[in-house]
Model the fold of this input.
Amino acid sequence: MQTALALRGLDVRYGPVQAVRGVDLTAARGGVTALLGANGAGKTSTVMAVAGARRIAGGSVFIFGRDMTGATPDAIVRAGVAISPEGRRVFSALSVEDNLTLAGSVVGDAATALARKAAMMERFPILGERRKQLAGLLSGGEQQMLAVARALMSGPRLLLMDEPSLGLAPQMVDRIFGIIEELRDEGISILLVEQNAALALDVADHAVVLANGVVAAAGPPQDLKSDKLLQAAYLAA
Amino acid sequence: MDVILQQTINAISLGGVYAMLALGLAIVFSIVGLINFAHGDIMTFGGYGIFLSLAFGMAPVPALVVGIAAAVVMALTLERTAFRAMRGADVVTLLITSFAVSEILKVVFQNAISARPVPISLPAGWSGTYQVAGTTIGVVPTVSLVVAFTSLLGLSLVLRRTAIGMAMRAAAEDLEMLKLLGVRANRVVAIAFALSGLLAGIAAVIWTAQRGSVDPMMGFFPVLKAFIATVLGGLGSLGGAVLGGFVIGALEVLTQAFLPDSLSPYRDAIVLALVIAALLWRPDGLLPARSATRS
Done:
């Protein structure tokens, strides 16, 4: 089985603080891998290190089999990785359409970028309706859709999604998880970071639980769901 | 009527120079958090570019173009050699770095060229006047006004309509996110510096055309005013920087024209007192930078 992402002994440090210690993780190609754990467990640090936005203090990152340890974010994007980051981070002073155009500017071929933008507006009709509106004026759920659409503009094969459901109304959470399943069915591999473990375990094929920067458990979702001790200790469902 | 029209043109043309300098400062600050004290020296370098081109027998118009290009090259050089290494450092560290760069450049100008002003002689016709409905108006202030407006308008079009402008506005909001999209941040930052250098170069052209000389401190005072303009307008706000520049320019010209002689030594104090009053009224500046509204 070919892997979309493999982390081997990943270390991430912030000065003296070691946020991620020796994390091993394998995300299968075409599947949803859930990365779970409490606040401060090192989930976001791990994802940001994969995206090239945190310095890797030790270990290796393999993306579709290629060693991308320490690569710059633009090289990682070109290797087929995109991120919908924690807090969505849409460019609030830019219009919805400009957010997408900007993300499409890294695509070499302008016609492809235009076609993708049109496809995003069709896929997320609310973004099409609000294309001229400033992204900062969208609701939280709409911003999350924009963050996903923006990530998809580069045509990724691996999508990193950091807390996509955080702060959203239940209905919107369902919509976002529906999108995750759609994307998986289209063949995009997904690394899903979630505090909402119950939901994440429902869509995931494989799950990794972090606690204090180390891997506390890993395995099929059913096993993790049935492990009451693990649930109580780390997932607080 | 005569005086009012003339002074209005003077106010707008001086304000235009401050606005261009302030906008250059604000573009760089909004993206990399650098308050660039060496901005004045970039302008001065542009002035020396004009001086040297003329000294080597170049025609006036190409010499002015060389001056502008020199300022752009200097801005890019400073970014690459001094500021890129400090990327991500805190505001104070960056500020002190720019002080150091500024001092080094002043010493280089003094030793390589002269500590005294060197003359720049542009064609006599350029400093003439013309008549509009019986009013005498200077050519240089008028041209300055047109050039400043064209530059500001052009830059605002670049920022709002082009892909690179979009990237710069996004970078001002969240540089890391821009990188995460795969956009090469170094290129965006370099272009921001180049644009700030371009504006400083155009300001140098206007300034030297009005004053007829260049000295190592040439850029210092106008850029000091431009700093005040950026704070008055709202630090990090591009529109605020332009507005602040025009306000400071207008205040200076008006106080110079209409203040009684006995008060004229206090001109700067009066202008600054007005700025402080404005900031007490609106502490974030006249047009504060848009704070990101994220949930």
